[in-house]
Amino acid sequence: MLKVGIIGATAYTSLELIKILLRHPEVKITYLGVRRTDRPKISDIFPALKNLLDLTCETIEQKEVPKDIDLAFVTLPPTISMQYVPLFTKKGIKVIDFSADYRFRDKSLYEKWYKAQHTDSKGIKTAVYGLPELSRNEIKKTNLVGNPGCYTTATILALAPLLSKGLIYPEDIIVDAKSGVSGRGREPKEDTHYCECNENIEAYSVGSHRHSPEIEHILSIKTNQRVSIQFVPHLIPMNRGILCTIYAKPKDKTISDNDIHKIYNGFYKNEPFVRLKEGNEFPKTKDVIYTNFCDIATKVTDNRIIIISAIDNLIKGASGQAVQNMNVMCGFDEGMGLL
Amino acid sequence: MLKVGIIGATAYTSLELIKILLRHPEVKITYLGVRRTDRPKISDIFPALKNLLDLTCETIEQKEVPKDIDLAFVTLPPTISMQYVPLFTKKGIKVIDFSADYRFRDKSLYEKWYKAQHTDSKGIKTAVYGLPELSRNEIKKTNLVGNPGCYTTATILALAPLLSKGLIYPEDIIVDAKSGVSGRGREPKEDTHYCECNENIEAYSVGSHRHSPEIEHILSIKTNQRVSIQFVPHLIPMNRGILCTIYAKPKDKTISDNDIHKIYNGFYKNEPFVRLKEGNEFPKTKDVIYTNFCDIATKVTDNRIIIISAIDNLIKGASGQAVQNMNVMCGFDEGMGLL
Amino acid sequence: MLKVGIIGATAYTSLELIKILLRHPEVKITYLGVRRTDRPKISDIFPALKNLLDLTCETIEQKEVPKDIDLAFVTLPPTISMQYVPLFTKKGIKVIDFSADYRFRDKSLYEKWYKAQHTDSKGIKTAVYGLPELSRNEIKKTNLVGNPGCYTTATILALAPLLSKGLIYPEDIIVDAKSGVSGRGREPKEDTHYCECNENIEAYSVGSHRHSPEIEHILSIKTNQRVSIQFVPHLIPMNRGILCTIYAKPKDKTISDNDIHKIYNGFYKNEPFVRLKEGNEFPKTKDVIYTNFCDIATKVTDNRIIIISAIDNLIKGASGQAVQNMNVMCGFDEGMGLL
Amino acid sequence: MLKVGIIGATAYTSLELIKILLRHPEVKITYLGVRRTDRPKISDIFPALKNLLDLTCETIEQKEVPKDIDLAFVTLPPTISMQYVPLFTKKGIKVIDFSADYRFRDKSLYEKWYKAQHTDSKGIKTAVYGLPELSRNEIKKTNLVGNPGCYTTATILALAPLLSKGLIYPEDIIVDAKSGVSGRGREPKEDTHYCECNENIEAYSVGSHRHSPEIEHILSIKTNQRVSIQFVPHLIPMNRGILCTIYAKPKDKTISDNDIHKIYNGFYKNEPFVRLKEGNEFPKTKDVIYTNFCDIATKVTDNRIIIISAIDNLIKGASGQAVQNMNVMCGFDEGMGLL
Fold first, then answer.
1. Domains of chain B in sequence order
2. Which residue of A182, A201, A246, A288 is the best one to mutate when testing the C interface, meaning the one whose CB has the most C CBs within 10 A?
C-alpha cells in the first residue's frame, strides 16, 4: 500500500481527494497536514467524512517532514506551496502540487503573474506539468508534478488536437469559460455569499485571469508555436463544473465536421478520461460532475470551429487529475479509484 | 412629500426598502446613514440602484441627528439600534426600527435573549409592535414602531385567528419554518458560502432561535393566554422567502376545513396583504416573493390543524411591512408603494 | 385610461406584463385572451396575481376581435401570432407582438428560419422593430410593433455604438450568450425539468439559433453594413437574466478603453434604460433582473474589444420593452410603470 | 460474478443504481429492460454513462424473462411492477422491487392507497421489507424484497429507537419532511419545471401522501404498537436529498439529551450506514448526498423530542439501499460498492 499525505487538508479539493483515495485499492492516507494549530479531526471539518476517515489533522511546519509518507499531495495556495514542496522532494518523497508554483517552466512568467519571487528554482525547472493526456511519459519518470489548473485542463484538452496538427490560427482563439462557485475556494467572501452568486451570472477578471498565461504557456510548449488566447471566465450559480466554449479560426475553410471528428478521435483514441460527442450532442456539466471525465464536442460553422469541453473543476480539474497523475507515477492502472 | 432617512443603509433589507420607497408617491429619501467613514454612494454598494438613487451615504454618529428627516427607518443590528433610536424620537422624528430592540414589552425577556442591557427603557415601553393586521390603531398613534421579525410575521399571521378564537391548545403548537438565505444577513460567513448552502437543507438554532420568544410574547399579549411554541427554522437554498408549516391541536375534534376557512375569511376580510387559499391549494413562496403579501392555507387532519403561511422575508418580513407601517403612521393609503 | 388586452395570457412573459401594467397609471387591462376553452381566471393560472387581477381569460377566436381594447399585446408563439395580429390592426387597434412574426423586414428570411409561409405580407412590411434606443421615432408613428427577442436586445444594445461608428469589423463578431431557464418558455419538457437544468450548464442550438439571423438582420439595417455574428447560447441554472459576452475586433488597434467609454456615453446619453459601467466593473444579471435596465461594460484587450451586456430576459427582453414601446407609441413618459 | 438486470432502466434511480453497480466488485450488469420498443443504448439515455456502460436496453415483455440474470432490480412504477415481478420469482430469480407493490403486508391497505387491485397475492405475502437496519435476518433468507420509499427510510430510521423502547407516544408524532426534486421522478410536468421549483418551497399532498401509510404500517409492525403520524412533505429547490424534522412527545418528561444519545448509540452501534450526531450538530443533506448514509441527530426541548434525519433520496432512499439489500441477500459484505 502506498502511504500518502495531504498537505493543506481543509480545501474543497482536499475533501474530494480524500473521497477518491478512500476508494483507491492501493493507497492508504496516513497523514493530513493543516496550517492551523488546533489539530481538528478531518471529520469535524468535513462532517461528510464521518465514519469514513476520522484522522486528526497535524500542524505542518516548515522544517519537518512528516514520517511515513511515500507521496504528498500539496493543496496549499500559490507562493505558500513552494515553501513546503522542496522539503518533501529532498527526502525522496513524490509530490503532486495543486498550486501554480510548479506549472510554469518559465520562472519569470510565474513571478510576473503571481507577484512573488519563486524560491524553488530547482523544483520549477524539473517539475512536470501533470496533464497525462499530453505528458504521460514524463509523468511516469518524475517525482514532482505541477497539477494543472481547472480552466487550463478544460481548455488545453479542447484545443490540443487542432493546435498540434496546425489546423487553426494559434493567435486567434477565444475561450469563454464558465465555472461553478467551488472554483473560488472555500473562504467566505462577498463574492462567494450565497445571495450574491445565486440567480446571477457575471464575468470576472476580464482580460487578467491567471489561468490565461498558464494555458498559453503550456499550449505553446506542447504544440511548438506561439499560442495566444482571449480568455474570459464567468461565475455560474452551481457548486461544481466548468464549461469552456472555444472559438477558433481554421486555416483551411473547407474543413468539415467529419474531418474534425476524425482528428479528435485519433488524438484521444486510447484516453480513458476523454469522451467525444458527435451528432449535434454537446457537453453538459451535469454529465461530468463527480467524475474524472472531460467531454468534448466540436462544430464547424461559417468561418469558425467551435469546441466545447466540460469537466468537474474539483475532479478532472484538480483532485481526480492528481490521482490520475499518482497512478501514472506509481505504475498503477491509470483509472484506479477513478472509475 | 415625507422626507425619510435610512440608518444602516447597507443591509439587504435596506436595498429592498429603497426600491419600495422609490416607487412611493408621497416619500422622498433624503438621508442614508452608514456605520463606516468612507462615504460611499449607495449605488456603489448596490449597483442595482444605479440611475435610480445615487445618493452618498453619510457616517452616522451617536450624537447628532441628520437634519431634514421626518421619519427614520433604522436597519441596524439589535443592541446597536437602541443607541440611535432615542436621538430621533427625542427630536420628534418618527422611527420604524427593524431590530429586535423595540419588539418586546418585557425588558427582561429582551435582555435574556439578546444578552445585553436595554438602554432605552422609555422607548421599549412606548414602542408599538408593527404588525398592522393586529395593531393598526396603535400604530396610527405612535411615533415609534418595532418592526416584526420575518419568521414572527409569518407565524403570527398564521396563528392569530385560531388563537384569538380560542380554538386550539395554546401550548401544543409546532412551527416548522423554512427560510431563504437572505434571512441570514449580508455578512460573508461559512454559513452563507454558496457551496455550503446550495444543494443543501439543514435545521439550525434547534430549540434556541430568538424569534421563538418574540412569537410567544406577542401572541400571548394579543390573544390573552400563555402561548408556547416549538419552533425549528431551516435554511433553504433560495435567496428569499419563508414558508411556515404549523401544526396545532384543535380543542374541538369535529371542527371542519369549512369552519376554519370561515374563521380566517372573517378575521382577514379587510386586509389588503393577507391572501387565503382554499380547496387544497397551498402557499408557494414563489407567489409572494417581491410582494408584501402573506399567503395562508389551512387543512384539518385526523387530530391536527395544519396552517401553512408564506411571505417574502425581506418584504412582508421586513421592508414592505415597514412601509406598510409608515403608511399607517402617516395616514397614507396602506398599500401605497406596495401594490 | 388606455384599455389594453393580452392575447396569449398564460405565458411567463404575460405574467410579467400584467405585473408591470398593474403599476402603470395610464393603463387598464380589460381583456385577457387564451387559446383554450375553459375560461380560467388569470389568478388561477398565476396564483401570484390573486387579489391583484382576478379577470377571467376569454377564448380567442380567429374571427372576432374583442371589444373595448385600444392596444393589444400579442404573446402567442411565432407562426400563430400572424393569424391574429391583422384582425386587430384592421380595426385600428395598436399591436405590440412578442413573437418573431413582425421582426423581419425580409419575408424570405423569416420563412427560411421559421419554416412557415408568412401570411400577413402587409403587416411584416409595415411593422416597426421595437427597440426604442434605435427606432424611437418610427415607433412613435406606427400601429404595429414587432417586439425584439431577448438575446437580440442584449446583443444589439451592446454592439450598436461600435458598429454605428464603423469601429469594428462587422463580420468578425462572436456572441457568447447565457440565459436563465424562463427563456425556454413555460411548457414542461425534458429540457426544462428541474433536475436537468439545476447544477448544469450547456450550450444549445450551436450554430443554428433563430435569434442569430434576427441580430444580423437588424444590425445590418441599422448600421448600414453586412453584419455577421457567431452566436452560441447557453442555458444557466437560474430563473431569469441574460448575459452576453461579445468579442469584436477593432479596426484601429490603438483604440483605448477611454475612447470606447466616450463612444458609449455619447450614444446612450439620454437613454433611461441603458446603464454603462466603467472602471473594471462588469454587469451582473442580479442587478438587472426585475428591471427594464440593460447594463453594459466594455474592455479593450490585446486585439479585441470585449463588450458585456446584461438584461432581464422577461423584462427588457420582452414585457418591459413592450411597455416601453407602448409608452412611446401612446405618448406617455417612456419610463412610466417601469421605474 | 452475480449477473444482474435492471427492469425499468430509464428512471433517475436506475442511473444511480448503474453507477453503484459498476463499482461493485462482485456484480456484472447483464440486462437492461425498458418499456419502449426502440432499443436505445443506455448511454444515449444517460450520456453520463458513456464509456462506462454502453449496453443496449431491451424491450421488456410480460411473458418472457430475460436469460442470464441471477437478480433483478425492478424500478417500474407501482401497479406496473407487480405485473413483472412474479415472472422473475417463479424462475428462481431474486428480485428487489423499488415500487410500493411489495412494501405492505396488508393487501387491502395497498389497494386503498394505490387504487388498484393487487394481482400478486403470493408475492405481497412473502416479500420482505428491505430496511436492513430493522430486518437484516429476514432479508438474508428471502428472494423478494420490497425496497422502502425514500421518506419512509428517513422517517423509520429516525423513529425506530424511540418507538422500539416505548419512550414516546406513538400517536402523537409529526413528520415535517423536505425533499429535493428528483423525488418527483423524471417525467416533465408543470410541477418539475425548473422555473416552478427554483426559488420556491411548497408543501404538497398535505394530509394524503402515500408514504404516510407505509411509515405507519411498517413502524406499527416493527415496534408492536399502533403508530400514527402526521406527515407533510415539502419540495425543496435542490436535486437530491431528504431532511425529516420529527416532533415526538416523550412519555417521561425528565428524559435528557444524554439518555437519548445512549439509546440511539446502542440501537445503531453496528450499523455501517447510520451516523449519529451529537453536541448541537444537526444533519445537513449535503453531507449525505451521493452516499448511502443516514445522518441522525436528536434534541430534547421543553416537552418534545426533536429528531432530524438526512439521506440521499436516490441512494439510501432507493438505489443504495437496494444494493445494500442485494449484499445482504447474496452474502456479500454489506457495504460493498457503497463506501
1. 2-148+317-330 (3.40.50.720), 151-313 (3.30.360.10)
2. A201
